[in-house]
Design goal:
Elements: H1 2-8, H2 31-52, H3 55-85, H4 99-106, H5 108-120, H6 128-153, H7 160-163, H8 166-195
C-alpha cells in the first residue's frame, strides 16, 4: 500500500522554474523515493520467489532487504526527528502531506520490511563494519547525487539542505550513515531476541 500510494502521490513535491517531472533526477532526487524503489524491488523479488520457489530470487530478495530495510528505518527516524523540530525542513509549507500519504511514504515501508525480516526471512550475515562501510558509502553517494541535481535544477529536494552549510551537511550525512548501520545492528539484535539465532549461527 505504501509503495502504491507513494507513486500515485508523487506530484506533491516542490517545484522551481523547472517542474519536478522535467527536472534532472526526476523523482529520484528524494531519498524517500529511492528507499521506496528498493523496498518495491525487495517485495517483488520476494513475491516472485514465493510463487516460483526460486532460491535465486530468495537470495536476491534477501540481498536487497539488507539495504532496503535499514534504509527505510533511517528514513522513518530522520523524518520523524526533523518533523518534530520543524516539518518545513523536510517539506515546504505549501506542499504538506495528508495523513495517508505521509504514513505511506515515511512509516509503512519500514514497518512492513521489519516484520518481513523478523518473521519471514533468514538472519543477516552482514557484520557491523561492513554495514557501516555500506551505509556511509550510500550516504555520501546520495549527497553527491543531490549536489549533481542542484547544479542542474537550481534547487534542493529537501529544504534542510538550503539551511545547512557544507560542514553541517558532512555532519548530517556521517550521522545518517552511522544511524543506518546502527539500524542494521538493532534489527539483527531484535532477530536474535525473537528467533534465537543470528547470521553467525546459520549453517
Amino acid at each position: 500500500m505504501g509503495c502504491l500510494v507513494t507513486w500515485k502521490q508523487s506530484d506533491i513535491y516542490p517545484k522551481d522554474s523547472t517542474t519536478k517531472n522535467e527536472a534532472y533526477g526526476w523523482h529520484f532526487q528524494y531519498l524517500t523515493i529511492i528507499g521506496l524503489l528498493l523496498a518495491t524491488i525487495t517485495f517483488l523479488a520476494g513475491s516472485l520467489a514465493d510463487m516460483t520457489s526460486s532460491q535465486r530470487l530468495f537470495r536476491i530478495k534477501n540481498a536487497f532487504a539488507v539495504v532496503a530495510t535499514p534504509l527505510e528505518v533511517l528514513i522513518s527516524v530522520l523524518y520523524g526527528g526533523l518533523v518534530s523540530v520543524d516539518k518545513e525542513l523536510v517539506i515546504p509549507k505549501e506542499f504538506q502531506l495528508g495523513l495517508l500519504p505521509d504514513i505511506s511514504f515515511h512509516a509503512v515501508p519500514a514497518i512492513v520490511l521489519t516484520i518481513d525480516y523478523l518473521l519471514l526471512s533468514p538472519p543477516w550475515t552482514i557484520q557491523f563494519r561492513q554495514a557501516l562501510a555500506l551505509s556511509t558509502a550510500l550516504a555520501f553517494a546520495y549527497w553527491f547525487w543531490v549536489e549533481q541535481c542542484y547544479r542542474h535544477n537550481g534547487w534542493y529536494p529537501y529544504p534542510i539542505f538550503e539551511v545547512l552549510s557544507t560542514p553541517w551537511r558532512i555532519v548530517l550525512f556521517c550521522f545518517s550513515g552511522a544511524l543506518m548501520a546502527g539500524s542494521t545492528e538493532a534489527l539483527k539484535l531484535a532477530y536474535r531476541t525473537m528467533n534465537g539465532v543470528d547470521g553467525s549461527e546459520k549453517a
